[in-house]
Design a protein that fits this description.
This protein is about 75% helix and about 0% strand. With about 240 residues, it is mostly helical.
């Protein structure tokens, strides 16, 4: 057996292995504490690029989903306005059905005219959030200058207006249904894209805990072997006994 004191090769080898084990254990600790498999580019450069791209995609999808929710909210406001206009038209129909044997025509006409003005006000305000409601003003509906005493003619005109409002409600409903499907599809994309990012970026905690435990044992064993390597050179002293 060669005995040397200037260069303890066994100790140097044990120390090198010990340093590698320490580096691996520190990496495991970082992954376990952060929950990420990739904490810096050195862990997986190409994986980091892919994960960042997927994370960016998720953010874009979330903004698109929020836009859909805002569009649905605007349509809901428009639906409420259209429903109110339809209720007003139904009241107008009642007013035009009245008989005036005992008077009251002037008061009834005044109420009708006030309701026509209210329809236009609602239409103008609703156009800001739902453009299709903007076409439901009294003039467009053809009910702005009706004489409540015209009877059947007035009622026929109002009936056409009610049909127009009903068509607008149908369009709003169809658009809302489309947006619901769009929103559901975006949520699915967000889920799947997030899962793809997680598969690349996130650490498998159970697997990494196994690695950490292994590195802990190797660190203890390496420390013990370094001590043994250092003690081996002391056997040279027996030559001087």
């Amino acid at each position: 057996m060669a005995l040397r004191i200037n260069t303890n090769v066994a100790a140097l080898n044990s120390h090198r292995q010990l340093l590698l084990t320490e580096v691996n254990m520190n990496k495991s600790m970082q992954k376990l504490s952060s929950g990420y498999r990739i904490n810096n580019a050195g862990d997986d450069a190409s994986g980091l690029v892919q994960a960042n791209k997927l994370r960016s995609d998720v953010r874009v999808l979330k903004v698109e989903a929020q836009n859909v929710l805002q569009d649905k909210a605007a349509l809901s406001i428009g639906e409420g306005d259209a429903n109110t206009i339809e209720n007003i038209l139904e009241r107008m129909m009642e007013l035009c059905t009245k008989t005036f044997a005992n008077g009251g025509e002037v008061e009834t006409q005044a109420e009708y005219d006030s309701l026509a003005t209210e329809i236009t006000r609602i239409s103008d305000a609703g156009a800001l959030t739902c453009p299709s409601v903007g076409s439901l003003d009294a003039t467009s509906l053809g009910i702005g200058t009706i004489d409540v005493g015209d009877g059947a003619t007035a009622r026929a005109t109002i009936a056409l207006a009610i049909g127009t409002v009903g068509g607008t409600l149908g369009e709003i409903g169809a658009e809302m249904n489309k947006l619901e499907f769009t929103y559901a599809n975006l949520q699915t994309k967000i889920e799947n894209t997030s899962a793809a990012e997680s598969a690349i970026r996130d650490v498998d905690m159970a697997e990494e805990m196994v690695n950490f435990t292994k590195n802990q044992i190797m660190l203890q064993a390496g420390t013990a072997m370094l001590a043994q390597a250092n003690m081996s050179s002391q056997s040279i002293l027996t030559l001087f006994g």
